[in-house]
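User: My notes are a mess, but here's the protein and adenosine-5'-triphosphate's SMILES. Can you give me a structure?
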Amino acid sequence: MILELDCGNSLIKWRLLSAGAEVVDTGIVDSDDALIAALSQPDTPTLAACRLVSVRSDEETQQLKERLTATFAIPCHQAVPVEVWNGVRNGYRDHQRLGMDRWLVILAAVQLAEGKACVVLDLGTAVTADLVDAQGEHQGGFICPGIPLMRRELQTHTRRIRYDPHWASGERYEAPGRTTIEAVERGCLYMLKGFVRTQYELAQEMFAEGCEVFLTGGDAELVKHVVPGARIVPDMVFAGLALACPLENE
Ligand SMILES: Nc1ncnc2c1ncn2[C@@H]1O[C@H](COP(=O)(O)OP(=O)(O)OP(=O)(O)O)[C@@H](O)[C@H]1O
Ligand SMILES: CC(C)(CO)[C@@H](O)C(=O)NCCC(=O)O
Ligand SMILES: [K+]
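Assistant: No problem, the inputs look usable. Here's the predicted complex:
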């Protein structure tokens, strides 16, 4: 089995792949301890290798890799920044500064776009947009807060916006809110939709010959109607990880 990890700022997403690259198990954990525990269950198949992407600090990532190697006796391959991969060029002035999760969704998007320009939006805790032309030149991108961060900022910096976000998860209607929870949740959703619409408009301006729009991340479903023809691709980070980090026994 190959263990795949997407180490985000708040959570670690993991998957187990069979030799035939079939996903046999997945999970989401909030700490290294919880990850080790989840993978130490009696029914967990034997691990052969790990590949991972991390946007955490080098120290934190190194620590996790060492722990996995020590616990399961497996090599850990980490996706590292490169300036060019298979004709796709990182557009950052310093390519090492581009978040690795962004780079991986860019690689996955270019592959799916099959020669067309593309914009890929990853809607999670933070939201990122990246634009790539038909020649595979990454034009750069944008970062803004996602719904969880917008909600938290409002709660942190006001005195009278107080509610348990737990109760907000079902609140996705678009009529003007008549309670605080409705007003905030619907307002944040409009922010997200507005961002996505603006990215689409920008991509149309930049890529007159047409472009593909890809949506991924936990909140992709919420904005899919904003862009006609947008393709929701779950697990784009993992798709890119497989491209950037092929393993011998695959
Ligand atoms: N089952 C789920 N678990 C967690 N979040 C979910 C789920 N379904 C939808 N979401 C939404 O997805 C968003 C988080 O998306 P995602 O998991 O892509 O985050 P991320 O940015 O990768 O996280 P990290 O901060 O760990 O990098 C949240 O806004 C949450 O509302
Ligand atoms: C923007 C996030 C937090 C999204 O996960 C991540 O890609 C990151 O930490 N990026 C580094 C900064 C940058 O991409 O410019
Ligand atoms: K992410």
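The chain has a mean pLDDT of 95.
User: Great, I'll file this with my notes.
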